[in-house]
């Protein structure tokens, strides 16, 4: 059971519910989480009674939802998502999870490949692209930005940062444009998205070289806005702020070779915190490997750190860990 990720445990929990109950849970989750859980449920095919018992115990300890009994299969996922979202709207997600086909419409951009979206919006007005980036989840928007031409990235994220909501009618019009383009269904979004936090979330997930260039361009355009975004960006050194339990859970899921790269040229304080939250044997082995490891490219170090930060944010979203400081809401 220790090898199961938080998403897999949540998927097993949903599979122990009846279809209607699981659908009620999914109904209240954001699109990215529905896709992640749906994919996990579709892949789980053989769960032992002892694993179910452990998951239920984990669930009760974390005080989340309810139980019955079910079995993972494509049929279960199909019926559950249709019950949760309706047959028409679930069709695109089912295509993505079970059949691998693209969905349609503005809302269904959430299920599309980021590279395909980048190609689609390449010729659109920058403000339209900025609205789309603000509308989507940060993880997907970061990938889209990476596929867009280098010379437009900074301007686009500057526009997202200064976007102070959008009139529902304007968003509905954009939705209709997407509907005509994909022959899909329209959905509207209330105003109140965009802003520095949205850009910080996207920047957190960008490749380090892209992040540096984008932030330089934003700072050139508006130094105060750039500083505000930078204050919200959660960087590798901020991991020193998370509690020991969260650090231990994070380290359990970080590959040893990735951690080794990430710790090159890391501040002593963060290194010591990491060593303290490992077994003595693992810490000694890691220290020896760090001493024996020769010079490595800075890009490799930055890439490893980005992957660990992405894992930390995913675990925080799942409720498995708590990010302190700028990475999440603090507890007092």
Descriptive overview:
With 332 residues, the chain is an all-alpha fold. The chain folds into three domains: 6-101, Annexin V, domain 1 (Orthogonal Bundle); 108-232, Flagellar motor switch protein FliG, alpha-alpha superhelical domain (Annexin V, domain 1); 236-327, Flagellar motor switch protein FliG, alpha-alpha superhelical domain (Annexin V, domain 1, Orthogonal Bundle). 66% of the residues lie in helices and 0% in strands. α2 (19-27) packs across α5 (74-85) and α3 (31-43) runs antiparallel to α5. The protein is flat. The chain starts with 5 loop residues before the first helix and ends in a 14-residue tail after the last helix.
Number of helices: 19
Main structural class: mainly alpha
Give the name of the CATH superfamily of the largest domain. Flagellar motor switch protein FliG, alpha-alpha superhelical domain
Largest sheet: none
Low-confidence stretches: 63-72, 99-104, 184-192, 325-332
Total of domains: 3
CATH level 3 topology of the largest domain: Annexin V, domain 1
Strand/helix succession: HHHHHHHHHHHHHHHHHHH
Radius of gyration computed on alpha carbons: 21 Å
Number of strands: 0
Helical residues, percent: 55-70%
What fraction strand? under 5%
The overall average pLDDT, rounded, is 76
Bulk shape: flat
CATH class descriptor name of the largest domain: Mainly Alpha
Going by CATH, the architecture of the largest domain would be Orthogonal Bundle
Straight-line N-to-C gap: 32 Å
